[in-house]
């Protein structure tokens, strides 16, 4: 357990005081225009005060048409700077590293939310999405970079690029979704080009010690595990990012692809040479023992999601060997006490078995 509480330095930016990173969690609490709300400020700052070594925002969209869900935090305009600046200062005042996750939903942007057809690397009939032109890909790259610059201006220590879970960067990586025939489609190298160009742009235009991470998921959405392993190997060898956040769905699982079974999915990444790049694991890490097991298996840090919703001070509680997280389902009162506002509570109520259903007398 003691390894969980060792500081962890990055090649750039401040060190984490421990190995606990707050996962970027959808909470639906921002204002309709993407500005930070008091409810979202409370939710995030409680986690920073609760001991997380790094506190990350929810996915924050870098273009208006990249919004993926209602109440999503925005980072696409200067109107967002006031709230972001307030948030960064409070997270850092609590002794936590402050990071914005940069996101674009691509084909998963609901048409009724953005008011037009969503965009995708290629036409996608199932989602009613249209293919981005090459000029629009260039604009998308620029808007990711501009959002990083805006996050830096707001006082954040760094940003994480959301390249996972079937959103736009992940859509480019997927040979099943990305049918482009230009320099952003075809080979695995071309499909990953957008990520490399965003990384290069952030490095060129943000300060030298600005922290930069990338979230990848190695399965689903038509992804090929071999492609993602090769991309992770290349990114860690180049050292342009400071950490790789692998979203594994379950840290214990084996790969879905039969040819890769017989060992854990996580091991394909922990076995890679990583140079100065840190490697983190996310996926149903709900107890201190599971977090410690991830470090023992080779991860440098853990990304905590559901357990952080249940306990704002999960890292502090985890220092007690006798700590056992609360069992599900939990009451709405418990979640209110943990800093969840009404919109977040209603969202969690849609997660099967998470929130105790209130019964009414007949």
Count of helices? Answer: 14
**What is the CATH C level class, in words?**
Alpha Beta
Euclidean distance between termini CA atoms: 49 Å
Helical residue percent band: 25-40%
Q: Could you give the order of the helices and strands? A: EHEHEHEEHEHHHEHEHEHEHHHH
Q: In total, how many beta strands?
A: 10
Derived structural class: alpha/beta
Large-scale geometry = globular
Could you state the CATH homologous superfamily? Aldolase class I
Average predicted confidence as pLDDT? 96
- Give the name of the CATH architecture: Alpha-Beta Barrel
CATH topology: TIM Barrel
> Beta-sheet strand percentage?
5-15%
Q: Please give the domain count.
A: 1
Strand ordering within the main sheet = 1-10-9-8-7-6-3-2
Largest sheet: 8 strands, parallel
């Amino acid at each position: 357990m003691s390894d969980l509480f060792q500081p962890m330095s990055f090649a750039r930016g401040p060190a984490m005081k421990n190995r606990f990173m707050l996962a970027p969690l959808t909470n639906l609490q921002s204002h309709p225009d993407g500005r930070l709300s008091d409810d979202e400020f409370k939710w995030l700052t409680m986690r920073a005060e609760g001991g997380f070594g790094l506190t990350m925002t929810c996915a924050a969209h870098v273009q208006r048409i990249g919004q993926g869900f209602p109440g999503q935090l925005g980072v696409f305009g200067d109107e967002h700077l006031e709230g972001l600046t307030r948030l960064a200062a409070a997270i850092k005042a609590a002794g936590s590293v402050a990071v914005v996750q940069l996101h674009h939903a691509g084909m998963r942007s609901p048409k009724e939310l953005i008011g037009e057809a969503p965009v995708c690397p290629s036409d996608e009939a199932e989602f009613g999405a249209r293919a981005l032109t090459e000029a629009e890909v260039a604009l998308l790259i620029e808007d990711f970079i501009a959002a990083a610059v805006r996050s830096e201006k707001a006082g954040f220590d760094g940003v994480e690029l959301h390249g996972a879970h079937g959103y736009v960067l992940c859509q480019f990586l997927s040979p099943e979704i990305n049918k482009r025939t230009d320099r952003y489609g075809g080979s695995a190298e071309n499909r990953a080009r957008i990520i490399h160009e965003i990384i290069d742009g952030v490095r060129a235009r943000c300060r030298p010690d600005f922290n930069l991470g990338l979230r990848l998921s190695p399965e689903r959405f038509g992804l090929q595990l071999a492609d993602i392993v090769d991309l992770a190997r290349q990114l860690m060898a180049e050292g342009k990012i400071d950490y790789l956040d692998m979203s594994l769905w379950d840290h214990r699982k084996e790969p879905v692809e039969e040819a890769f079974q017989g060992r854990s999915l996580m091991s394909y990444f922990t076995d890679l040479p990583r140079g100065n790049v840190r490697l983190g694991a996310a996926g149903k890490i709900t107890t201190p023992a599971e977090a410690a097991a991830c470090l023992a298996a080779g991860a440098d840090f853990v990304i905590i999601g559901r357990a952080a919703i249940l306990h704002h001070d999960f890292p502090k509680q985890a220092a007690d060997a006798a700590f056992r997280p609360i069992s599900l389902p939990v009451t709405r009162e418990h979640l209110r006490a943990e800093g969840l506002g009404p919109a977040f509570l209603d969202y969690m109520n849609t997660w099967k078995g998470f929130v105790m259903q209130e019964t009414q007398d007949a």
